[in-house]
Amino acid sequence: MNDVDVKDLRAAISKEYAEVAANPQKGFHFHTGRKLAALLGYTDMWPESFLNEIPAGALESFAGTGNPFSVEEIRPGQRVVDVGSGSGFDSLVAAKLVGAGGKVIGVEMTEEMLNKAQAHGAAAPQLEFRRGYAEALPVDDEWADVVISNGVVNLCPDKSAVFKEMFRVLRPGGRIQIADISVTVPVPEAARRDLALWTG
Q1: Residue 29, CB half-sphere, CA atoms under 13 Å: how many?
Q2: How far is CA 95 from the centre of its chain?
Q3: What is the pLDDT of residues 37-65, one digit of tens each?
Q4: Which of 58, 76, 78, 199 is the most exposed place for a label (fewest CB within 10 A)?
Q5: Does residue 148 lie within any of the structural domains?
Q6: Distance linking the first and last C-alpha atoms of the chain
Q7: Could you tell me the pLDDT band of residue 89, with boundaries at 50, 70 and 90?
Q8: pLDDT at 86 over 90
Q9: 177 with 64: CB under 8 angstroms?
Q10: Which pLDDT does position 200 carry in this prediction?
């Protein structure tokens, strides 16, 4: 935690993803949108018609690192928390899977992404988006059956706090399904302080 200023890091990350929300066709150092969904196996799990029911605006700003749904099936009636929900793509997928009897809460810190997600999720009564941080989820204790996250934990310096929050909101017997990236060698101290490396 002493290696990077969390406020500055959050501002840098939000700036990057605000651009993904506003200009998804711009081109970034990471894949986005339908191409990314295909690369990560979403199109292998569900027919094209399933993804076509997800609002195009949410899909175009999708920027994950993996497919949390490949870990285990999300079932009708379950409660799901999506940590770092971005434009809402994964939350919208989860909302379709849990159906009218379930509930999905997406938590996002970047205002532009949150606004986009809320606009696209308004038609799904089982879906709600809230502003918040992975380290302080605005969700009740033991509320969720499943916590999902896609490419967010690696952006948080205090990973212990993130996992504590995930376990706090998870009911006994619930599960965490994460898609993310990790490093297998120690990161030099100077690199840990470089905000450009965190965001890119």
Answers
A1: 7
A2: 14
A3: 999 999 999 998 999 999 999 999 999 99
A4: 76
A5: yes
A6: 19
A7: very high
A8: yes
A9: no
A10: 60
Domain-embedded: residue 193: yes
DSSP H helices, 61-108, are 89-98
In a domain, 33, yes or no: yes
Structural domain count, the chain: 1
Residue 108: name the closest of 125, 129, 135 by CA. 129
Q: Is the torsion defined by CA of 139, 9, 114, 154 positive or negative? A: negative
Q: Are strands 170-179 and 127-131 parallel, antiparallel or unpaired?
A: unpaired
CATH number reported for the structural domain that contains residue 74 in this entry:
3.40.50.150
Helix ranges restricted to H, 23-158:
33-39, 42-45, 48-52, 56-60, 89-98, 111-121
CB 62 within 8 A of CB 120: no
Domain of 87? 6-199
Give, for 81, the enclosing helix (H) or strand (E): strand 79-83
pTM: 0.93
Q: pLDDT per residue over 126-148, tens digit each?
A: 999 999 999 999 999 999 999 99
Characterize 135-165 residue by residue with b for buried, 16 or more Cβ atoms within 10 angstroms of its Cβ, and e for exposed: bebebeeebbbbbbbbbbbebbbeeeebbeb
Q: H/E element holding 161?
A: helix 159-169
1 in any annotated domain: no
